[in-house]
Write a structure and sequence with these properties.
The chain is of the alpha+beta class. 37% of the residues lie in helices and 23% in strands. The chain has an 8-stranded antiparallel sheet. It has a 5-stranded antiparallel sheet with strand order 1-2-3-4-5. Strands 14-22-21-17 form a 4-stranded mixed sheet. The longest helix has 25 residues. It is globular.
Length: 549
């Protein structure tokens, strides 16, 4: 399949442009911006990296959507900017200013670009799912717009499991002998996937993960602690995170471990995250009941149980599967859940993907915008409804309940009615959800589980503001506005947020936000350059769009 991408000039060209755009955004945010080397001369954003002048036609405010090819100045003449040249400039700039170099960085950017070309070519060969929610899950072709290698994938053979390539595949079923079964919470839905032998319990597994764990699995398969029961009778559909799949036979999402690096992290369920998911689901049930009563349309996807095998830490984590409710089961009839990331994705300055579905900001000249193909007749009304569904429950979870939700674009589904108007918000993925330290009694939990479940108040607020505003609302506003100004949209958002702030007595952090205090933005380029774990990522400050609304 890789040769397909290399033989597809259109896919290669789009992948190159998308890679330049993503890395250039990182340069504006993390290199040139903090050094005072960014300026604006309509319609261009101008910056310097390693002493070289760069420019790009930009719109979308903080989202930095680019039109056309970014350029660099050579001998008083503007030339097209390539990903390879931009990588060399970044390496020069950071190599001079940081304590250590990074001889892996260029290869990671190139690998991400090649993977993107492969995905663009491959997704044209297979139609998207008929289910609009699943189609939206598989629509994140370009990945994180502010990441230097947004489609980095570790391991081999990944394409057949890639959601962006419209993949689907049967899960592998294992039997776990009951004396080595590890589980907690409600896992009964897993038993509906097949029939385990007497004395065994059924354990679904991601086939890619079984390939990665083959050497570790040999002994327990040989001595009968595990048995291989073959493929499931139905195909599962990978969602946007790659390792979480939807299993239609049981109407559940199953979150697996994958011992490969995807973007920033090796995506495995650590033992304390398995236990933490069940604990959080128990604690969050009354919280979301309160949020739904205060903010109608608020939904969430509980993770009521996990199952694995007690065969040492590596296999406990590697075979661990977290059961998550599916979105159709929590949305009311007539409401269609759509991934917020798909609504925001647009073309991100990368041009159209040949043969792909329309993007959020695609519209005929003078026509109304669409969001993931849903028409938006009144953008201001649509935006107000969107912000009202998403922002107040996130803020109230923090201020009212001491809960830090992680509402970035891959963790929120928007339920739209028959007219495409947002009427529900579905929050999911408890891995990033935390409890504010000091507001919850965690004394009965193992120390590592309690540690993984908590943030101090300041760290929690930074995470809320970054995920909600910088990662999420900024990108949705840019897609909705297209090439126009987002100022009117941010004025509407300010009204919604001020209404909530007034109901809570204007808490200081929210007052500062509405007054235009700079925002925290996650430093993805810096953490990749430092080769650090994603949890070590810091923040840089960026302009607050509410300040000029």
């Amino acid at each position: 399949m890789t040769s397909l991408a290399l033989d597809s000039p259109a896919a290669v060209a789009v992948a190159e442009e998308a890679s330049v755009s993503a890395l250039l955004r990182c340069c504006v945010r993390e290199i040139a911006g903090p050094r005072g080397q960014v300026g604006y001369e309509e319609p261009y954003v101008l910056l310097r990296v390693a002493g070289t002048r760069l420019r790009a036609r930009a719109h979308g405010g903080l989202a930095l959507r680019f039109e056309g090819r970014p350029e660099w100045l050579e001998n008083d003449s503007w030339q097209p900017l390539s990903a390879d040249l931009l990588v060399r400039l970044v390496e020069t700039e950071l190599g001079e200013s940081e304590a250590e170099g990074n001889d892996e960085f260029g290869a990671q950017v190139a690998a991400s670009r090649d993977a993107l070309a492969t995905l663009i070519a491959a997704r044209r060969e297979v139609p998207p799912p008929a289910d609009p929610w699943l189609a939206s899950e598989q629509a994140l072709v370009f990945g994180h717009p502010f990441h230097p290698s947004p489609k980095a994938r570790g391991g081999a053979g990944w394409l057949r499991y890639a959601p962006e390539a419209h993949a689907s595949f049967p899960l592998r079923l294992l039997g776990v002998r009951d004396d080595v079964l590890a589980e907690a919470g409600d896992t009964g839905a897993l038993d509906e996937l097949g029939q385990a032998p007497p004395g065994y319990s059924l354990l679904p597994a991601h086939p890619w993960q079984l390939e990665l764990l083959a050497a570790d699995l040999a002994a327990p398969l040989a001595d009968g602690r595990l048995v291989d029961l073959g493929d499931s009778s139905r195909t599962a559909v990978p969602t946007s995170s790659v390792r979480t799949v939807y299993e239609p036979l049981i109407d559940r999402c199953l979150k697996f471990s994958l011992d490969v690096r995807i973007t920033n992290c090796v995506r495995k369920n650590s033992w304390y995250e398995l236990a933490g998911a069940v604990e959080l689901s128990r604690r969050l049930e009354p919280v979301f009941l309160d949020l739904a009563a205060a903010f109608p349309g608020t939904r969430w996807l509980p993770e009521p149980g996990y199952r694995s095998a007690e065969l040492g830490t590596r296999l406990l984590e590697g075979l661990g599967v977290i059961v998550r409710m599916g979105p159709w089961s929590v949305c009311r009839p007539g409401v269609t859940p759509l991934l917020s990331g798909a609504l925001a994705a647009g073309r991100q300055g990368a041009g159209a993907v040949p043969g792909d579905v329309p993007g959020p900001a695609d519209r005929p000249p003078g026509g109304a915008p669409t969001m993931a193909g849903w028409p938006v007749a009144d953008p201001a009304r649509w935006w107000r409804a969107y912000v009202e569904r998403v922002a107040p429950p996130v803020l109230d979870a923090y201020f009212g309940h001491g809960v830090v939700l992680e509402p970035h674009l891959q963790n929120v589904l928007i339920g739209v009615d028959a007219e495409g108007l947002p009427v529900e918000a579905v929050f999911r993925d408890l891995e990033g959800t935390k409890l504010v330290a000091g507001r919850h009694d965690l004394s009965g939990l193992p120390g590592r589980v309690a540690e993984a479940l908590t943030y101090d108040a300041a760290s929690g607020w930074n995470r809320v503001v970054y995920c909600l505003v910088v990662n999420h609302l900024v990108e949705i506003a840019a897609s909705l506005a297209g090439t126009g100004s987002t100022r009117e949209l941010w004025a509407v958002a300010g009204e919604v947020l001020a209404g909530y702030a007034a109901s809570r007595g204007w808490p200081r952090p929210l007052s500062d936000l509405l007054s235009g205090a700079p925002l925290p933005a996650k430093a993805n380029l810096s953490v990749r350059w430092a080769r650090s774990a994603d949890r070590s990522a810091g923040y840089v400050t960026v302009a607050n769009p509410l300040a000029t609304a």
